[in-house]
Specification:
This protein is α/β, with parallel strands linked by helices. Helices cover 45% and strands 25% of the residues. α2 runs antiparallel to α7 and α7 runs antiparallel to α8. Methyltransferase required for the conversion of demethylmenaquinol (DMKH2) to menaquinol (MKH2) and the conversion of 2-polyprenyl-6-methoxy-1,4-benzoquinol (DDMQH2) to 2-polyprenyl-3-methyl-6-methoxy-1,4-benzoquinol (DMQH2).
């Protein structure tokens, strides 16, 4: 398991990309990254993934089992790609909560969804994944898409998600992971650390934020480690599905 925190004298530390920082600083540092990239987030997603992120998210929706009348939490939901799909699936009798710790991302998501006419069954909540502000047993499904790697205490976040799921509910974690083939891993590293920051500099005028995002992917637990973390938090029947050669993985676990 990746150990994200350690003691340095009396000060607890964690990873911010490849850097070691004081644990209490990470939330603000991650917030600054997403404040910086929010306006260009959707454009950069398409450029970075060559549009494939839409297929990854569609597969997540297909695996969610969300039905009419259910309650869904789209955690770290950003600009609302999954929320838009879930809103249509749950219908007027259901509810989708788009939650994000970053108010800039939350504002972008609200504006984007309202512009496409999604207003009635979506609620917006600024929330920290480590301490979700919802009662126990609230949601039928929780998704966290490309957000878990930015959480300081992933174990606490997984326990918090488990708490607010209803019995029979499921968690889906869509996240960058470890490529299954070494040649692909090398090519992916070259792209992430040399080309991606340059794209970020040209399009979002912020190469440093995209350098952090590449580093945060490398520090994120691999497929088997994350599966074990979910099981430790209480999830059962936990599985994962590699996509694009393991560059991305979708983990799914249930609360019984």
């Amino acid at each position: 398991m990746v150990d994200e925190s350690q003691e340095s004298g009396s000060q607890e530390t964690t990873h911010f990309g490849f850097r070691t920082v004081a644990k209490e600083q990470k939330v603000d540092m991650v917030a600054n990254v997403f404040h910086s990239v929010a306006a260009k987030y959707d454009v950069m997603n398409d450029l970075m993934s060559f549009g494939i992120h839409r297929l990854w998210k569609r597969y997540t929706i297909d695996c969610s089992g969300v039905r009419r009348g259910q309650r869904v939490l789209d955690l770290a939901g950003g600009t609302g790609d999954l929320t838009a799909k879930f809103s249509r699936l749950v219908g007027e009798t259901g509810e989708v909560v788009l939650a994000d710790i970053n108010d800039s991302m939350l504002k972008m998501g609200r504006e984007k969804l309202r512009n496409i006419g999604i207003v009635g069954n979506v609620r917006y909540v600024q929330a920290n994944a480590e301490a979700l502000p919802f009662p126990d047993n609230t949601f039928d499904c929780i998704t966290i898409s490309f957000g878990l790697r930015n959480v300081t205490d992933k174990d606490a976040a997984l326990r918090s998600m488990f708490r607010v799921l209803k019995p029979g509910g499921r968690l889906l974690v869509l996240e960058f992971s470890k490529p299954a083939f070494e040649p692909l891993n090398k090519a992916y590293d070259a792209y992430s650390f040399h080309i991606l920051p340059r794209i970020g500099e040209m399009v979002a005028q912020d190469g440093e934020s995209y350098r952090y995002l590449a580093e945060s992917i490398r520090m994120h637990p691999d497929q088997e480690t994350l599966k074990g973390m979910m099981e430790e938090a209480g999830f059962e029947n936990t599985t994962y599905y590699n996509m694009t050669g393991g560059i991305v993985a979708l983990h799914r676990g249930y609360k019984f």
